[in-house]
Design a protein that fits this description.
Number of helices: 5
Shape: globular
CATH class: Alpha Beta
Number of domains: 1
Order of helices and strands: EHEHEEHEHEEH
Radius of gyration: 15 Å
Oligomer: single chain
Structural class: alpha/beta
Number of strands: 7
Helix content: 25-40%
Strand order of the largest sheet: 4-3-2-1-5-6-7
């Protein structure tokens, strides 16, 4: 007998990526982005580890949101403690493609080369990307606040 639980809730899935070793401002921005996304009902996706990923997860989970970590390794236990769901891919850096494809939009907070690869993969897939306190790239709007970044990622601007 099949259970009919009704239609699947259509939430926006927004990836938050960025520096693995952010400065205090970037960490706080990521935490606020996660919180605001959760308050808006979005599912927050991230790489599942530390830095910006952990700060965004902490903000989202603290606001009662759902946080999915797309981990590079093969061990779910390596994820940060704020994840609702940890997906161990065993793909290393190739997990960036999974993250970019799974998201409807992306907010990049600070970041280095790994973040740049996530931005490029998301743009290649036609996903909107917003940069906050980080990369300035053609075709990627730069937000001046977490509020502005979340509004843009959710299409509310």
């Amino acid at each position: 007998m099949a259970l009919d639980s009704g239609p699947v809730k259509r939430s926006r899935y927004v990836a938050v990526c960025g520096a693995s070793d952010p400065d205090p401002e970037q960490r706080e921005l990521a935490r606020e982005v996660g919180r605001r996304l959760a308050e808006a009902g979005a599912v927050v996706l991230c790489g599942g580890l530390g830095g910006v990923m952990e700060a965004a997860a902490e903000g989202a989970s603290g606001a009662g949101g759902t946080v999915v970590g797309i981990l590079p390794g093969a061990d779910r236990a390596s994820g940060n403690p704020h994840l609702t769901v940890a997906i161990a891919t065993g793909l290393g850096e190739a997990r960036n493609a999974v993250l970019a494809n799974a998201a409807d939009a992306m907010v990049a907070v600070g970041g280095g080369w790994g973040t740049l690869s996530e931005i490029a993969l998301a743009r290649r897939r036609g996903r909107p990307v917003v940069s906050l306190a980080g990369w300035e790239l053609e075709g990627v709007p730069v937000a001046i606040s977490a509020e502005e970044a979340v509004r843009a990622a959710l299409g509310d601007d």
